[in-house]
Structure formats: C-alpha cells, structure tokens
Design brief:
The complex is a heterodimer of chains A (about 55) and B (about 575).
Chain A: H1 18-23, H2 26-50
Chain B: E1 7-9, E2 16-18, H1 19-50, H2 59-92, H3 101-123, H4 141-170, H5 180-210, H6 219-230, H7 232-253, H8 260-273, H9 290-325, H10 334-337, H11 344-367, H12 370-376, H13 381-410, H14 417-443, H15 466-499, H16 534-561
The chains are: A mainly alpha (about 55), B mainly alpha (about 575).
The structure holds protoporphyrin IX containing FE (HEM) and copper (II) ion.
Chain lengths: ~55, ~575
C-alpha cells in the first residue's frame, strides 16, 4: 500500500449504500481480507499449538 | 515518462490499451505457458509411474518429478498467468495506464529468477521434498530461497495492480464502479497478498533453518502457516478463473452479469471466508482443537462455498440471458445447444465451469468435512479432487482465455484451427479423467505420493483390489489424453504467437475464436436485467441433487466402516 493512500470518498454522493461503499473500496477490502484469516486461522491456530504441553 | 505512456485503441472492443501493459501481459503469459509445458511433462511421468503396468520412473526420480510437477504447474504456470490477468483486468479493462511498468518488470524478473532457480535446485536432486516441503525433511537452501524470490516478485505484481486501480480512479478512466471482471481480479489480488505474506512468514525462517541459523522449526506450526499460503493460493486461482469465466462470456457472447450486486457480494464472501478453509489441511492433526477445525472448515468454508455456488448460478445465467436476447428462446436449452461450441474459448470455459463444479467443488466440500475427511485423508482422492479444481477448472479456463488473448493482445490469428477447436475437449476429458480415476483409486485406499503401493520388497506385501489397479491404469490413459491436450495447447499458442496471421489494427474476417460486436461490455459495469432463466435453473438443480446425494452417500459410507456402538 506504499503507492498511495486510499482516497476518502466524502466528497461524493453521501447516500451511496454502505455495501456499495465497501465494495468500491479496494483497500478496505484488502484490510479485511488479510485480517480475518490472520486472526481466525493463524493467530488462533498458533495459540492452540502453543498450548500443547511439552513432553517432559 | 511520455515514451511509456503510449496507447492504442483495440478495434474489437474499443478499449484503450496501454502498450507497456500489453508487453508485460505478453511476457508473463509466454513464461507461464513454457512452465506449463515443463510441469505437464513431469505430471505425465508421475502418472505413468503410478500406473503399475508401466511404473516408468525409479523411486528417487519419481519423488523428484512429483516435486517439480507441483512446483512448475501450481506455482509457476498459474501465478505467471495470473499476473498477466491482473494487468489485463486493471490497465486494459479500465482504459488506464499501468502503474509503474518498470517495477512490474522487476517483479517479472524476480519471478523468473525464482522459477528457474527452483527448477535447477530440484533437478540437482537434494530437494525432493514435494510441493509441501514439510519440515523437518530438509531441502537444499536454494529451494526455499527460490520460492521466496518468486513470492516477492508476485507480491510486487499485486501492488502494481492495486496502484493501477488507484490511478484509474484518480484519472477517472471509468465511471461508477469497476467492472465485474476487474472486481474478480481484485479479489484474487487481495487473497494473493495474504497468501504471499504467509509464504514469507514461513519460508524465510525455514530457509534460515536450512543454512543453520535457526536450530529447529516446529512441524505443526510449519504446517499451519504453510497452508495459509498453500491453500489460499488455490483461492487466488478460484477467484481468477471465475473472473475469466465472466470475461469469456462477455467477450464471446456479450453476456452481462445477472446482477452485479449479487456477483460482487459472492466475491466478498471469498475475501472474507475462503482463506479460512486452509484449515481443512490440518483436519487429521492431533494437537489442534475441533473448535478451531470446525469453525474454520465447516462453518466458514460453507459461506465461501456459497460464494462459488452463486457464481455457478450467475455465470451460466449470464450466458443464457445473452443467448436468449439474441433470439435463441426455444425450449429450455436452445441457448445451450446453439452455443458456440466450435469456439475454443467458449467450449473450454463451459467445460471448466461444469467440471470445476461437479468434480472439484462437490468433492472439496466432502474432503473439507472433518468426519468425512477421515475416509480419504492422504489418499489419491486428494490429488483427484484438486486436479478437478486447478486442472479441469483453473488451467482449462486459463487455456480458454488464451485463445482470446492471442488475437486481442498479441494481434495475431490462431493457427491450426482444427487443433485449437479440439484442444479444450481433449484436455478437458483427460483432466476430468485423471481427477475422477485418482478419486476412484483413493476411495479404495490407494495412498497419494507413493511409488510402490504394493510394498514389493517388504516382508509383508499388500494387495489392493483389482479395481484399484484398474483405476490407476485408467488414470494413466487419461494422463496421456490430457498431455496430448496440453501439447496441442502449447503448439497452437506458440505457433500463433510466432507465425499467426498479423492483424495490425484491423479486425479479422473469420477468426478461429470469434468475438461478439459488443465485447466491450467486459469493461463495463451493468446487469443483464432479466431473471427468466429456466435452463440455468435446471442445470443448477441437477448440480444440487448430485451434491446432496454424494454428500449423503459419504456419510453412509463412513457409518459403515466406523460403526457407533
Ligand atoms: C498433463 C496434465 C497432468 C497430469 C497427467 C497430472 C498428474 C498428476 C499425478 C499422477 C500426480 C501425483 C499423485 C500422487 O502420486 O500423489 C499429480 C500431483 C500433483 N499435480 Fe498434477 N497432473 C497434471 C496437471 C497438473 C496441473 C495443470 C496442475 C496445477 C495447476 C497440477 C498440480 C498438481 C499438484 C499440486 C500435485 C501434488 C504434488 C505433491 O503431492 O507434492 N497437475 N499430478
Ligand atoms: Cu485447500
């Protein structure tokens, strides 16, 4: 994302429905698409593995 | 900058094509095809080794070829082609210049260096660790390094794509929302960022471990993070080939999506949930709770599957709507019977759609169900399933779109018309066959990645039922068919690029893969505006019935071999 910041669309029509605003914002989608699996799959998974007791 | 900002206008679609983007699309597509040829050859050798009557390669070469096969086709062919798709879907479809073409060339160079180094390293023989390269089985350090270099290149290409989206928006080269095909490509790029980041997180320490800087890597953590890459990258493929389906339907038939909203929401389901299904690769691991497994595979995966089922409805629906608009309204199926089956782009696309659903999709849900997974975990059923998705599905879709890319981007007509027309059927039947017969053998318990399932030199040998051996033979025959289809593809593509009739800036009189006069809809946002689609409803109902039936049969099968008392 170093190329450019996502643009604020505040200047455009305020009544654009929420879903459309979401779907028209690639960087918000990118953020969601990276965060969801990082939290539910990787972080939760690593926590489970970390809880396995070490063999004596 | 003025020199690299040259455009031409496509006489077929009216799209403005940035020449720098066009060259990058060409380069990435050509390298992709070369590696498909190399990797496909390894695949044929692997399949012929697993055919007991042939048993082509010695054991060490078998595992080497299997490693090279997975690497060259799943990673190199598919990702190079996907980069070409990303550049097409951003710069070309949005009438825009590509962001930072020089950076895109650096990405290309890194990917190429990575791919070549990976092949050299595998061929040296110390890295036959197969595609998953599970620790603590060590490969040569260059094996991991080459993958890292490749992944960095691919990641840069993704950011060139996002940069192009930003430029297009700022320079207002399109109106309203981006076209659906671009949206699908964006979904692929988003999943790719997660995929490649996960790859870096696991491969960098593994590389350091291989050169001795880190003393050990926990195998379960490796598997967990590796599959965040290994599985998610398959979801890049799904998103990309769904985008390609929509693109081919639009370019060949002028088809518009039934509902942009619905299709875009289906892609959103992919962005949210597809990557979580990575957990289905760890269903048989002890040490991780069922809560984690079932949350990530059952609950969340079904939402992603819902996304695929929506596309499975709206892609044929869009085609039906377009065909009916041209007057093919008799009965339920005239639109399908009179579809352009002689156009290799359309034929391949439709076969890809059907086989992805029936062979790859249904079996994927079965495999991804925790309990049912026990039935075929680590058997040939697994490669059978994913040859339904990535070969009959993704690879065939990418082959089909090539037949449009050559006239539209390379500005050449296809050579060997008859070969091109037969190719999708040949490859489709072959790929469908390897998928089906590997699954058949797997259902009978034949292990995957196994050179000698009979344990010929062991004290205790093992006999499989005759049917299992038959399945492996049929798999070998279909592998030959698929290879002939693959060779035909490479011959047509290379022949056309080098010797095809030059088109200049004019249209062709009778092209092999004809394009409709309204092909420009591929670059527009808009709906077909009809819901009268009886044929699609019938097709989808047949699919749902097959799905439910197969799912139930597997539960029944499970209950028989694992009785509850
Ligand atoms: C001519 C076409 C092809 C043939 C005949 C073929 C055949 C095979 C066979 C027999 C196996 C080994 C199964 C085992 O012993 O475990 C295999 C593995 C595999 N194939 Fe293919 N395949 C073909 C094309 C492709 C394509 C186009 C892709 C990807 C896009 C692909 C991806 C893979 C992967 C990832 C593996 C697993 C490698 C591993 O276990 O490490 N194949 N293939
Ligand atoms: Cu998977």
């Amino acid at each position: 994302m170093s190329h450019s910041e996502p643009r604020q669309d505040g200047g455009e029509d305020e009544r654009v429905p929420f879903m459309q605003r979401l779907l028209d914002n690639p960087f918000l989608l990118l953020f969601i698409g990276v965060t969801v699996p990082t939290v539910f799959y990787i972080i939760w998974g690593v926590m489970e593995i970390a809880q396995i007791p070490i063999a004596p | 900058m003025a020199t690299i900002e040259q455009f031409r206008t496509c006489p077929t679609t009216g799209l403005k094509v940035h020449l720098a983007a066009e060259n990058l699309i060409k380069a990435n597509a050509v390298v992709a095809v070369v590696f498909l040829a190399v990797g496909g050859l390894f695949g044929l050798m692997v399949a012929l080794t697993r055919w007991p009557a042939v048993h082509l390669l010695p054991a060490d070469w078998f595992y080497l070829a299997l490693t090279a096969h997975g690497l060259d086709v799943l990673l190199v062919w598919i990702i190079f082609f996907e980069v070409a798709i990303l550049y097409f879907a951003s710069a070309v479809l949005l009438n825009c210049r590509l962001a930072a073409p020089r950076v895109a060339w650096v990405a290309f160079a890194l990917m190429l260096i990575g791919a070549v180094l990976a092949n050299i390293t595998v061929l040296q023989g110390q890295s036959s660790v197969m595609f998953t390269s599970y620790v603590p089985m060590p490969a040569a350090p260059n094996f991991y390094l080459s993958l890292i270099i490749f992944a960095v290149g691919a990641l840069i290409a993704c950011f060139v794509f996002f940069g192009t989206l930003v430029i297009a928006k700022e320079e207002k080269t399109y109106q309203g929302s981006i076209p659906l095909v671009t949206f699908g490509a964006m979904t692929a790029a988003i999943i790719a960022v997660f995929t490649l980041a996960a790859g870096a997180i696991i491969l960098v320490p593994t590389w350091l471990w291989s050169i001795g800087y880190i003393s050990d890597i926990d195998p379960l953590t490796y598997k967990l993070v590796w599959w965040a890459m290994g599985h998610s990258s398959q979801q890049i493929n799904v998103s990309a080939h769904v985008a390609v389906w929509y693109a081919i339907a639009a370019i060949v038939l002028g088809a518009k999506p039934i509902s942009e909203k619905v299709s875009r929401s289906a892609f959103l389901l992919y962005i949210l949930f597809l990557q979580l299904a990575s957990a289905h690769h760890l269903l048989a691991e002890p040490g991780i709770s069922s809560e984690w497994k079932i949350f990530n595979t059952s609950y969340m995966m079904y939402l992603a599957v819902l996304g695929s089922m929506i596309h499975g409805l709206t892609v044929p629906g869009a085609i039906e709507a377009a065909q009916r608009r041209r007057g093919l309204t008799n009965g339920i199926f005239e639109w399908l019977r009179k579809a352009p089956w002689g156009n290799p782009a359309f034929a391949g696309m439709f076969l890809s759609l059907v086989m992805f659903g029936f062979l790859g999709g249904i079996t994927g849900v079965v495999l991804g169900t925790e309990q049912l997974n026990l039935l075929m975990h680590n058997t040939l059923y697994v490669p059978g399933h994913f040859h339904g998705t990535v070969v009959a599905g993704t690879t065939l879709a990418f082959m089909s779109v090539t037949y449009l890319v050559i006239p539209l981007i390379f500005r050449r007509d296809l050579v060997l018309k008859k070969v091109a027309q037969i190719q999708p059927y040949l490859f489709g039947i072959g790929a469908g066959g390897i998928s089906l017969f590997m699954m058949g053998a797997g259902t009978l318990g034949v292990a995957r990645r196994h050179w000698d399932i009979g344990f010929a030199d062991a004290v205790l040998r093992f006999e499989y039922p005759e049917v299992a051996i038959l399945m492996l033979g049929l798999n070998g025959i279909c592998a030959v068919l698929a290879s002939l289809g693959g060779i035909s593809y490479v011959v047509v593509v290379v022949g056309s690029v080098l010797f095809g009739k030059k088109m200049g800036e004019s249209k062709l009189a009778a092209p092999v893969a004809p394009v409709t006069s309204t092909a420009g809809v591929v670059g527009e946002y808009g709906n077909a505006g009809t819901l009268k689609l009886p044929g699609t409803i019938v097709l989808v109902s047949v699919f749902m019935m097959a799905f439910i039936l197969y799912y139930v049969v597997n539960w029944k099968y499970l209950s028989e071999i694992w009785p509850l008392r």
